[in-house]
């Protein structure tokens, strides 16, 4: 599968609260866009932290028209240049520098009132690009409208999952003290833990492993809400969600209230599971996870929950089983959806490296850069592709012993071709001329 534009994935994640809604009521689009514009984002390739309402609306309508492809960048032909007349440019910059709190709308009204531009002819985008090019586009000033924080719950199971990582206990595995991390996914409507596992790190690979098991066990959610950590921002995770039509939505930094239900799950786990854990039975990570999964299925999922009207998470989830989107035929392709693609240069001996192991690829690829399609969870190379996704053959683990007796293909010299009718020969020509003249 071809790689997905990282900028398009980022924009889709920003639009999460919009695209995750099946229907927008009257005025909701403007309200949600206004809330999104007030948040801060880690924008790829940009020092800015905010996104304007107009940009958000443009992204939303582009997504409505063309899906994920509509969120990719189209190349601009006027980059770095302003089409505004020089006097208008000077007036815009002077107005902003004189009062940095002036909005673009105020600047346009000011220039119209001064007679520098006709009414409704000055493009807002042109003004914004000019101010941005001079580093004075951001409007300073405190927020005057308090942010609304309201409790909510998904109507149906499978609508929203939450994902987060909790720092777990430090335990001895094989004589070494190692810190653990609990990676969890929870269904919002039912509080059911779709999957959870203790890991030895909190990388994107650990999160993808938990997500894969959750999809197999509990179906495909419409939306996954996560924090802004680097692991959740990985392009591989974003690509998996995009291919399965799951919206990946990021909480605003330093706003844990967006995942209060997961925080409550973490507290329950500490009080009921970790407090009772007998570490003398834990020899390896699998022992810890086996006890976690038994406790989740036999205790946590079967306890009545006051927020669910004293229903258990399991019974509340089963209530919506007809609405759960199952993997169906995609189950057979799930492993492939979680494969990674890494670029490698083929050495002169026809090998590439992956995770400190060497693999042989077709020898004619020597000197080229290829993409290794790998199963990161199994640590194996599945196949080789070109940088455009075309299959180039298999990769096999290097066996140097077998190669010592393998018959090698030798380079063949280029065959010499002769013309059917030989051309003129200098020595023969001068020989004929010489003896003709002598005779």
Short structural summary:
By secondary structure, this protein is an alpha+beta fold. It is 34% helix and 17% strand. A hairpin with a 5-residue loop joins strand 2 (176-187) and strand 3 (193-199).
The total of beta strands comes to 12
Q: Which stretches of 5+ consecutive residues score pLDDT under 50?
A: 140-150
Which CATH first-tier class of the largest domain would you pick? Alpha Beta
CATH level-four homologous superfamily name of the largest domain = Ribonuclease H-like superfamily/Ribonuclease H
Model description:
It is a single chain. By secondary structure, the protein is of the alpha+beta class. Helix 1 (6-14) packs across helix 9 and helix 5 crosses helix 6 (104-113). It contains 15 helices and twelve strands. The strands form three sheets. Strands 3-2-1-4-5 form a five-stranded mixed β-sheet. Strand 9 (369-375) and strand 10 (380-385) form a beta hairpin. It folds into four domains: 6-71, no CATH class; 86-133, Arc Repressor Mutant, subunit A; 160-331, Nucleotidyltransferase, domain 5 (2-Layer Sandwich), CATH 3.30.420.10; 339-403, OB fold (Dihydrolipoamide Acetyltransferase, E2P).
Name its key features.
439 residues; alpha+beta; Arc Repressor Mutant, subunit A; Nucleotidyltransferase, domain 5; 4 domains; 5-stranded mixed sheet; 4-stranded antiparallel sheet; 15 helices; 12 strands
Please specify the SSE layout and strand pairing:
Blueprint lengths: L5 H9 L1 H4 L8 H10 L15 H14 L19 H13 L5 H10 L10 H10 L26 E14 L2 E12 L5 E7 L4 H15 L4 E4 L8 H9 L3 E4 L9 H14 L11 H14 L14 H7 L14 H4 L2 E6 L5 E4 L2 E4 L8 E7 L4 E6 L5 E3 L2 E2 L2 H4 L22 H13 L1
Parallel strand pairs: 1-4, 4-5
Antiparallel strand pairs: 1-2, 2-3, 6-9, 7-8, 8-12, 9-10, 10-11
